[in-house]
Specification:
136 residues; alpha+beta; Alpha-D-Glucose-1,6-Bisphosphate, Chain A, domain 4; seven-stranded antiparallel beta sheet; 3 helices
Length: 136
């Protein structure tokens, strides 16, 4: 099953693209809830390159690596990648009136229900939009 989330970011395409792919930015926006954070991020943005975002509870009680391999890159338009469990993700960037629509479509995993997954990914995407817009 595929799940799609999206947000309209009120900023230019270059700024949105850069914030999505900058480890320094990722560490600031990549969280679904304020009780979590991303203390480490690496990005090798090329087909065959890898990425890793270390996501941890702020209280240190748990954490995990969100990592994968880029399978297709169309600069400022599309990023596709596969996760370690072979699920795939597609991230589209399209200029719209008023900003850039960022749409993520991902294969659902089996541990959590689909609505919980949709809400988590949407919360992270909403944080991304706020981060970019606040950067000015």
């Amino acid at each position: 099953m595929k799940i799609t989330v999206e947000t309209l970011v009120k900023a230019g395409l270059g700024k949105v693209w850069d914030a999505w792919n900058s480890p320094e930015d990722i560490m600031q926006w990549n969280t679904a809830h304020e009780s979590w954070h991303t203390p480490r991020s690496t990005v090798d943005l090329r087909e065959g390159g890898t990425f890793l975002s270390r996501m941890e509870a702020r209280d240190g009680s748990m954490g995990f690596d969100f990592e994968g391999t880029y399978t297709r890159i169309v600069p400022q338009r599309l990023i596709e990648y596969s996760l370690g469990d072979e699920r795939t993700v597609s991230v589209e960037f399209s200029e719209q009136e008023g900003g850039v629509l960022v749409r993520e479509t991902f294969d659902a995993e089996t541990q959590n229900d689909a609505e919980m997954q949709r809400q988590g990914w949407q919360a992270i995407l909403d944080n991304f939009g706020r981060h970019v817009e606040q950067k000015g």
